[in-house]
Structure to design on (313 residues):
């Protein structure tokens, strides 16, 4: 008997709710799989999204990438094909109907292994510029996500079945409407692949002064080509990308490691305290001391009912 789309959606929400019994982000015993729950809309939070599938079963969320806002809700998924610094906000959630979602990190090596097979069946996908997009989940993708979550109840089956389900999930994405994003990342001679290498280098060396000519040479691109394709894919320039990484790390250092603003700014690469404070306020809406104080008060106030998270996915 065919299970209706409504029944599948309900099962997906029920499974997530069962493994995320409290507000927060909950890693699972399956590597790369986490489930998320919020009982109220929240303030904006910052983080870095890795290549991943984020599927919402209930509620809605907004993700800010550069100047682009991606809103997605129940029955939608967000596909991230490259490491991207983002700002997020839960925009639909209540105690009676909490926000429920799952995130599964994608192994880019598995993408490369399937691209050739998929292109023999479907032909080459049109290149897709932006490294992030929202789409409506297909019944096949939703069914795969449900079977992935069901594995959490059968730990003994995980070693045998997880690789098969993960391969099917990647296959569904590669044959879906946003397949071009993943296929381009997997092609070693594509601009998307070269930009992904540039992003990886910036994430590892964000505190170093950025020399765009050096970065372009590292990824075998001209300076003009790197600027053009980097902005097309990440919605920001390499300098803006590095700045977001620096400011997010500085905020984490102040919140989690209790560093003062001067020490945090210096550790992430700022020589000028005034420049750090100015750019921090532009990014987060307030100077460092005021912003960190507000978040700490918010964390204290929410100890019994959910906290502001720095990242998800």
């Amino acid at each position: 008997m065919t299970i209706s789309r409504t029944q599948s959606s309900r099962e997906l929400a029920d499974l997530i709710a069962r493994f995320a019994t409290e507000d927060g982000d909950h890693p699972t015993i399956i590597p790369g799989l986490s489930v998320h729950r919020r009982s109220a809309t929240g303030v904006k939070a910052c983080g870095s999204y890795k290549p991943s599938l984020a599927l919402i079963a209930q509620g809605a969320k907004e993700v800010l990438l550069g100047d682009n806002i991606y809103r997605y809700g129940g029955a939608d998924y967000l596909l991230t094909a490259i490491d991207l610094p983002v700002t997020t906000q839960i925009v639909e959630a209540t105690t009676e109907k909490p926000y429920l979602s799952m995130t599964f990190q994608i192994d880019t090596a598995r993408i490369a292994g399937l691209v050739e097979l998929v292109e023999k069946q479907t032909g080459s996908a049109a290149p897709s510029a932006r490294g992030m997009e929202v789409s409506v989940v297909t019944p096949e993708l939703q069914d795969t996500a449900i079977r992935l979550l069901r594995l959490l109840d059968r730990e003994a089956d995980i070693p045998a079945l997880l690789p098969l389900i993960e391969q099917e999930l990647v296959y569904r994405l590669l044959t879906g409407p946003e397949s071009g994003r993943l296929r381009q990342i997997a092609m070693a001679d594509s601009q998307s692949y070269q930009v992904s290498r540039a992003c990886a280098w910036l994430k590892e060396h964000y505190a170093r002064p950025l020399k765009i000519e050096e970065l372009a040479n590292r990824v075998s691109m001209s300076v003009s080509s790197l600027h053009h394709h980097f902005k097309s894919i990440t919605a920001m320039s390499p300098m803006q990308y590095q700045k977001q990484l620096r400011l997010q790390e500085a905020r984490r250092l102040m919140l989690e490691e209790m560093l003062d603003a001067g020490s945090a700014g210096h550790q992430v690469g700022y020589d000028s305290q005034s420049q750090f404070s100015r750019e921090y306020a532009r990014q987060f809406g307030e100077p460092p001391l005021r912003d960190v104080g507000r978040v700490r008060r918010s964390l204290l106030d929410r100890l019994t009912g959910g906290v502001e998270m720095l990242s998800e996915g």
Observations:
- DSSP finds twelve helices and ten strands in the chain.
